[in-house]
Design brief:
This protein is mainly alpha-helical and 201 residues long. It contains nine helices and no strands.
């Protein structure tokens, strides 16, 4: 199966290459999560994916590139889950909540991988680390703007509201700071209720 946004392979060779690529990505994600990025070797990834090291390097230039692609693939999957859950008839406040839930889910599911990527990039603000908030921020702002224009949402400053909500959901999903000792699922339900209360017209 092709990743979201990628063309569906037509030939047997294209399908085999896609299966190999997916096996490498799945193996890398599993090992990075279980033993950490730093302790995972290319040889271990190749062994788990049942490919040779040379084959792996035919798909990815380095372990860091592989980590970035795992995160990119997971971000695309999060975006597809969001798109599948909403349509033009979905009320604006529910679109906003769904966007934030997908950010929280992605951050929670990929917290170990994201921490590794940010460490690997050395805190470089210009790094290529895949962050779903980058692409979901625009969708969130657009949903808030449209909701305000349609009269479905209260008139709020769009960008600061989006940033504040993203920060709260991300921090809760990762268990940062004051969110550390709270039940994640209960907290996210409370954040959903707060978001509806803040935005509903």
């Amino acid at each position: 199966m092709a990743n979201p946004g990628e063309p569906v392979p037509k030939t047997r060779l294209e399908r085999r290459k896609l299966r190999t690529r997916r096996a490498i990505l799945d193996a890398a994600a599993k090992l990075f999560r279980e033993q950490g990025y730093a302790k995972t070797s290319i040889i271990e990834i190749a062994d788990l994916a049942d490919v040779g090291v040379g084959t792996l390097y035919g798909y990815f230039r380095s372990k860091h590139d592989l980590l970035q692609e795992v995160l990119r693939t997971h971000a695309l999957e999060a975006r597809e889950r969001y798109r599948a859950a909403v349509d033009r008839t979905t009320p604006a406040v529910e679109r906003v909540v769904k966007t934030l839930e997908e950010v929280a889910r992605y951050m929670h599911e990929n917290r170990v991988l994201l921490a590794s990527a940010f460490r690997e990039d050395g805190g470089d603000r210009q790094s290529q680390t895949v962050n779903p908030a980058d692409w979901l921020f625009d969708a969130l702002c657009e949903d808030i703007r449209r909701g305000i224009e349609k009269g479905e949402l209260r008139k709020v400053p769009v960008e600061i509201t989006a940033l504040t909500l993203l920060t709260a959901y991300t921090s809760a999903a990762l268990g940062l700071g004051v969110w550390r000792d709270r039940d994640r699922e209960a907290t996210l339900r409370e954040l959903d209720a707060m978001t509806r209360a803040i935005l509903a017209a």
